[in-house]
Design goal:
single chain, alpha+beta, Butyryl-CoA Dehydrogenase, subunit A, domain 3, three-stranded mixed β-sheet, two-stranded antiparallel sheet, 37% helix, kinase activity
């Protein structure tokens, strides 16, 4: 290719598989487009998707808010691949609820009232659709060059929700998870990302990742997953007793004081925070020193 030839950095219709994305790498400082950050992130992934540290290291002088935002967009795009892989195996019949082991159940916030009986595959679709709508919102993210602090505050909630897709796949569709992770290292990259930028609490990370000091959650009744607070949850049958008692569900993990020996009964008092429905909670003593979680 001569030096005067214009380089077209897109895949045209009819591009052969071996030629897909096969254009020369760019230097970040020389990229003259509002999509520069996205292009560099994708370039680093194509170069070596297992080199997580290099992919997550922001270029010198790069706005950190935009860097986090663009990475989260990329995570959501790639997670669609896992959703496609799951859809023939994760059905409403096999996975009637969004769970991770027998200890965690998640409520789907896409419904008018957060719904417990939303099948896992529908929860996955709703979560990715909701994340796409928010991240492409002209109200909260009108620019991809600068982002307001008030909008950046929403990234943590998106991270917490989409991570549950990894959790469900790991504990209930392990072979598919391993197949996807081997080709993308996406869960590893996501975990390092949220820890690096403090976008999630460590006790909410359920998938063990080498080097991240996150251990697997035991599925045994009342079993411990290495002593982490996340592993202190009760089984779904225990949690269901709270739900069937007439109390409303919807405990947000970020609101809970996860101290040993304290459970949380959710009252009927609700308040709207942004577009998320959060339940007012009060602690209750539990003789089993374990916790039951119904999370929005």
């Amino acid at each position: 290719m001569s030096s005067g030839t214009e380089i077209i950095r897109r895949n045209r219709p009819g591009t052969k598989r071996e030629e897909w994305c096969q254009w020369p790498d760019e230097v970040f400082d020389e990229v003259d487009t509002v999509l520069a950050v996205q292009q560099i992130i994708q370039q680093m992934i194509r170069k070596d998707f297992k080199n997580v540290d290099a992919i997550l290291t922001e270029p010198q002088g790069q706005d950190l808010g935009v860097w986090k935002y663009e990475h989260l967009r990329q995570f959501c795009m790639e997670l669609n691949g896992l959703a496609v892989l799951l859809q023939d195996h994760c059905t409403p019949e096999t996975c009637a609820q969004m769970t991770a082991t027998e200890q965690w159940i998640f409520l789907c916030a896409a419904h008018k009232t957060p719904k417990e009986a939303c099948p896992a595959i529908n929860y996955t679709r709703h979560t990715l659709d909701g994340a796409a709508c928010l991240l492409n919102s002209s109200k909260y993210f009108p620019s991809r060059v600068t982002i307001r602090d008030s909008s950046l505050a929403k990234l943590s909630s998106v991270c917490r929700r989409v991570y549950r897709i990894f959790s469900h796949a790991y504990y209930h569709h392990r072979s598919l998870f391993d197949q996807f992770e081997e080709k993308t290292a996406l869960c590893q990259r996501f975990t390092v990302f949220v820890l690096k930028y403090n976008l999630m609490n460590k006790q909410n990370l359920l998938v063990p990742i080498a080097g991240a000091d996150i251990e697997e959650v035991s599925s045994a009744d009342g079993g411990s997953g290495g002593g982490s607070e996340a592993s202190e949850a009760t089984t779904i049958s225990d949690t269901a007793n709270v739900n069937s008692s007439g109390m409303s569900t919807g405990l947000c993990a970020d609101q809970a004081n996860l101290s040993s020996g304290v459970g949380y009964r959710v009252t009927r008092q609700f308040s709207m925070i942004g577009c998320l429905l959060s339940a007012a909670i009060r602690p209750i003593q539990d003789e089993r020193s374990t916790l039951g979680f119904l999370l929005i």
